[in-house]
Design goal:
With about 450 residues, the protein is of the alpha/beta class. Helix content is about 35%, strand content about 20%. It is built from 13 helices and 21 strands. The protein starts with 18 loop residues before the first strand and ends with a strand. The structure holds 5'-deoxyadenosine (5AD) and iron/sulfur cluster (SF4).
Length: about 450
């Protein structure tokens, strides 16, 4: 493909420019947002730097999903305070915490700029104004903003795998969740801009594209000029997969109430769509699911799992779960344990319930499970999941899998690291291969987290 049609997606190196340092917390969506922010700031004359000591502007892109995510950022502000005592530097808090806490963030004397997730285009103005005048804030949420025309500048990237946000915001009101309040209403991005961004990544040598959204299954773009024309997620997935059959496509996150069979059939049709579905269950108890406003039951969740296994027998399934939501009884917890046993997830992100101010749960349901009990339940789920992950990984022993090499192993420079289509991390001796190569490996041994392998040359 011809590179010249696309602008550079690498950070600009220019010692003469003012420097921005960007630190990112939270989900992959936030990582991608930081890349959008860098693009906007580069256009305004900034260049990225790799330490706070060199920065003229420090930005921290934040997460509000659980209290501990916010506490970590507040701790970082103390570090930035020390830097500010030494010299002149601006500090900005952007993203979900900026949206949630707004002016409150300006009270501690460290923060100069507060910008919510839909205000990033305004950052150059906010920064200029903060230099001249007092503190600046923009936390307006938008019904339209998708940053569709902005080419994210890829930082900290391995040059192999990149994210594309296909939508923003969320229209589900899960009672425990802060996301709809801090990221606003759901908007789907124009597929043409998504395809253009994917083509640009491919032209720059990327081999894997991760399509991101809070709920990708509700992606729906309606042509504003012709309302009968629309693109749903299954179609978008197919369009991205067809761009280059040697480039992998992944996506997250799926929602059990919205995931269609059409998505599963599209996955089955294209080898380059990776066989992995992240399908957060949150709880195995119908009482909890109802209270969480998840809009599916244990039974319908299990039906979706059965359908995945029928259409995509080799597909890995991962999940998210919350231990200790309001009113969770021992029986509710046992239902979660039994669902985990029944499904046999490949892996899971497991959390204790953290009450978030302003959510439906915080207004109506008491956070009444003692911390110690939440921790005990979470630990039981983690222990079980470790066994289940090991069981799932053992099924790979002796098998030959195609792996996309993503980098060098941290433990040994002689080893490479990569993932199978099913998202299993593999470690294997390099044998002269490099990041970006596809290699076939034979799985020799495993732990619950990793497959140990060797390359089989054909
Ligand atoms: N407390 C704990 N975990 C939460 N999640 C979302 N909100 C909360 C909360 N208030 C978890 C869910 C979600 C994942 C991204 O974070 O499991 O799927
Ligand atoms: Fe991502 Fe949600 Fe955290 Fe915001 S609150 S960074 S959307 S996980």
């Amino acid at each position: 493909m011809n590179n010249t049609n696309f602008r550079s997606i690498k950070p600009i190196c220019d010692e003469t420019r003012p420097k921005v340092f960007i630190e990112t917390y939270g989900c992959q969506m936030n990582v991608n947002d930081s890349e959008v922010v860098l693009s906007i700031l580069q256009d305004a004359g900034y260049a990225l730097c790799d330490s706070i000591g060199k920065a003229d502007l420090i930005l921290v892109n934040t997460c509000s999903i659980r209290d501990n995510a916010e506490q970590r950022v507040l701790g970082r502000l103390d570090v930035f305070r020390l830097e500010k005592k030494k010299r002149k530097v601006l500090v900005g808090v952007i993203g979900c915490m900026a949206e949630r806490l707004k002016e409150k963030l300006l009270e501690n004397g460290v923060v100069d700029i507060v910008a919510g997730p839909d205000a990033y285009r305004d950052l150059p103005r906010l920064v200029s104004a903060a230099k001249l005048e007092s503190k600046q804030i923009n936390t307006l949420l938008s019904h339209e903003e998708t940053y569709a025309d902005i080419s994210p500048v890829r930082m900290d990237s391995n040059g192999v795998s990149a994210f594309i946000s296909i939508m923003r915001g969320c229209n589900n009101v899960c009672s425990y969740c802060i996301v709809p309040y801090v990221r606003g209403a759901e908007r789907s991005r124009d597929p043409k801009s998504i395809l253009r961004e994917a083509e640009c990544l491919i032209a720059n040598g990327y081999k894997e594209i991760n399509l991101l959204g809070q709920n990708v299954d509700s992606y729906c773009w309606v042509n504003p000029d012709k309302e009968s024309e629309h693109v749903d997620f299954a179609r978008l997935l197919e369009m991205v997969a067809l761009l280059d059959r040697s480039v992998r496509v992944r996506f997250a996150t799926s929602h059990p109430k919205d995931m269609t069979d059409a998505v599963l059939y599209t996955m089955a049709m294209y080898d380059n769509i990776c066989k992995h579905i992240h399908l957060p269950v949150q709880s195995g108890s119908n009482v909890m699911l109802e209270k969480m406003n998840r809009k599916y039951t244990r039974e319908t969740y299990l039906q979706r799992i059965a359908k995945i296994r029928e259409i995509l027998p080799d597909c890995a399934i991962t999940t998210d779960v919350i231990a200790g939501f309001s009113g969770e009884t021992e029986d509710d917890h046992r239902q979660t344990i039994s669902l985990f046993n029944e499904v046999g997830f490949d892996s899971a992100f497991m959390f204790q319930y953290s009450e978030r101010p302003g959510t439906k749960a915080s207004r109506h349901y008491p956070d009444d499970i003692p911390t110690q009990l939440k921790t005990e339940r979470l630990n039981e789920i983690i222990e079980l999941q470790n066994e289940l992950s090991l069981d799932r990984n053992k099924q790979y022993l002796g098998r030959i899998c195609e792996v996309l090499v993503e980098g060098r192993s941290k433990r040994s420079a002689d080893d490479l690291i990569g993932r199978t289509s099913s998202n299993k991390t593999c470690v294997f001796p390099a044998n002269g291969h490099k990041p970006g190569d596809y290699v076939n490996v034979k799985i020799l041994s495993c732990s619950s987290a990793t497959l140990i392998a060797e390359i089989v040359e054909d």
